[in-house]
Amino acid sequence: MTGANFLSQSCARGGRTGRAATRKNTGVGFMLAVLIMSVRELIVLGTASQVPTRYRNHNGYLLRWDDEGFLFDPGEGTQRQMIYANVSSTAISRICITHFHGDHCLGLAGISQRISLDGAPHPVHVYFPRSGQKYYDRLRRASIFHDVATVIPHPISKAGPIDEQPSWTLTVRPLDHGVDTYGYRLQERAGRTMLPAKLAEAGVRGPMVRELIENGFIDIETDGGDEDGARVRVKLEDVSVPKPGQSVAFVMDTRMCDNAIELARGVDVLICESTYLNEDADKAHAHGHLTAAQAATIAREAGAKKLILTHFSQRYTSTEPFLAEARPIHGNTIAVRDGDVIPIPRRKKPKGSSKGTSKGTSKGTSKGSSKGASKGSRANAKPKQRPPGKTSG
Length: 393
Ligand SMILES: [Zn+2]
Ligand SMILES: [Zn+2]
Description:
Elements: H1 2-13, H2 27-37, E1 40-46, E2 60-65, E3 68-72, H3 78-84, E4 94-96, H4 107-117, E5 124-129, H5 133-140, E6 151-156, E7 160-164, E8 168-174, E9 182-188, E10 191-194, H6 196-202, H7 207-215, E11 217-221, E12 231-235, E13 240-243, E14 247-251, H8 258-263, E15 269-273, H9 281-286, H10 292-302, E16 306-310, H11 320-326, E17 333-335, E18 341-343
Parallel strand pairs: 3-4, 4-5, 5-6, 14-15, 15-16, 16-17
Antiparallel strand pairs: 1-2, 1-18, 2-3, 7-8, 8-9, 9-14, 10-13, 11-12
Helix pairs in contact: 4-5, 10-11
The structure holds zinc ion (ZN) (2 copies).
């Protein structure tokens, strides 16, 4: 059963604590905070569409991203799945709901109460289609509880950025599902990777590096400088190379549409529904869903590096046919099961780059990533999981 599988996995993996609550730039504490913040992985809590099955829970995906935890589409049972996955409710800092079909939102009632019960030390932001405000209000306070958490609603009514932080932007686009539905894209800001050899050559060292990063240039006194202080200007671009930000797209419940492709444009990871196989393409279209081949086509058209298939119809007992259908179109495709943990693949470092020094995106992509993250760059790398069961689904 799902529970037992989850349990064995979580024991093997060890405990997962909440997000880094304290981040002081001193000593061991800071190093620990960096390690915690640097985790970028997707914890799959549920993979079923419409109705849960014996082997799959309703949807639920926790994207751990440095010191943030994005919970996408918490379906029914998400709270319990988090226990099996050994993640605390305090790990959640943001909840993103694509639409208000039950398999994408029923878990909000339980999660909302659990966040208060556990005393989340930070605000929790919830994004959802504005047209579903009444469903949000019901789920947010479905029954009696001591509501003490700071939960901040963000109703969405149009495409575009819905949250911008110093290191990332969260963007949405409407999808084609018959009811108001938005897909999400998390985009890390681009930064720069410093080149130590170039820094040394230019005579930039110590605190000067920080000044260079902050100002974009630094004026350095030359050896032969006179009393007027002859100086040479070193620009950031002279001693660093661009570092594109990482990105993840979440496309759930839609027919083929341009917005799905735009959300997934060039992403490192696309998490995409594939409710049906091609043999049921007519049903997919009729119900506003994708086939595995269509999901793979979106990934290919968008240039997504890795495709994660999920949200499978209960009519299928194995995901092997989904992979057989998708991989000829997009080779780097996996089909997930409840409990899978998928590291966000790390970017290759440019030659001669230093470890973990960059502007704008100093966290997460280069140093101190989780044990699992180092395995993520292989094409078709298998997620951490229990041994496959007979009906993986
Ligand atoms: Zn659904
Ligand atoms: Zn739906």
